[in-house]
Amino acid sequence: MSATGSCDRARRSATVKGRSHRGFTLIELLVVLVILGILSTAVALTVAPDPRREATLEIQRLAQVLEAAMLEAQAGRRLLAWSADTEAYGFWEAERGDLHERLWKPLTGDERFGRHRFSAGLHLVSVEVEGLSLPPGALLEFPRGDPPLFRIALEGPRNESTGDGRIELRATPIGRVDIHSPGKP
Q1: Rounded-to-integer distance, Cα 68 and Cα 111, Å
Q2: Per residue of the chain (185 residues), what is the pLDDT tens digit?
Q3: Which of 17, 34, 35, 115 is spaced 20 to 30 Å from 172 by Cα?
């Protein structure tokens, strides 16, 4: 027998022994399955829509477009107004005319100022301008010059810590719109 033959035989027996000890144990398979389950749950939770998050984004978007409308009116570009009912809101543009005889038409061709439905679970509660309550659908006008001081109260999904879902948008004298939650000044 040659030295090469004994070496081949030793290699073959080591390979056979190695195969008999290879593979996964039941514990290792269960650990992998648990990890996959945790990862799939995490992915499902991040993909699933969160009503509070959607409402927060909608409120921030509304605050931004209200500020933009006030800026456009202050700059004299166009006369704008805002109106809302419990389910949706939209912007209006005044055709040039007498101060008391303005004709308002809804803005339909402008995506930023067009009509929008409130996100699921979010609805209008009330609108106040300079301390006076506006009925649903009434126009909140943005004049040239000083911006109107208004409060828009919205109800959204409940906050677990406070149990309240009320959010207010408040106009400031400098033309900003602040977002206030219950328990905050």
Answers
A1: 13
A2: 555 555 555 555 555 555 556 788 889 888 889 999 898 888 877 766 666 778 888 889 999 999 998 888 888 778 889 999 888 999 999 876 555 677 889 888 878 888 888 887 888 999 999 989 999 889 999 888 888 999 999 988 776 655 667 889 999 998 899 998 765 54
A3: 115
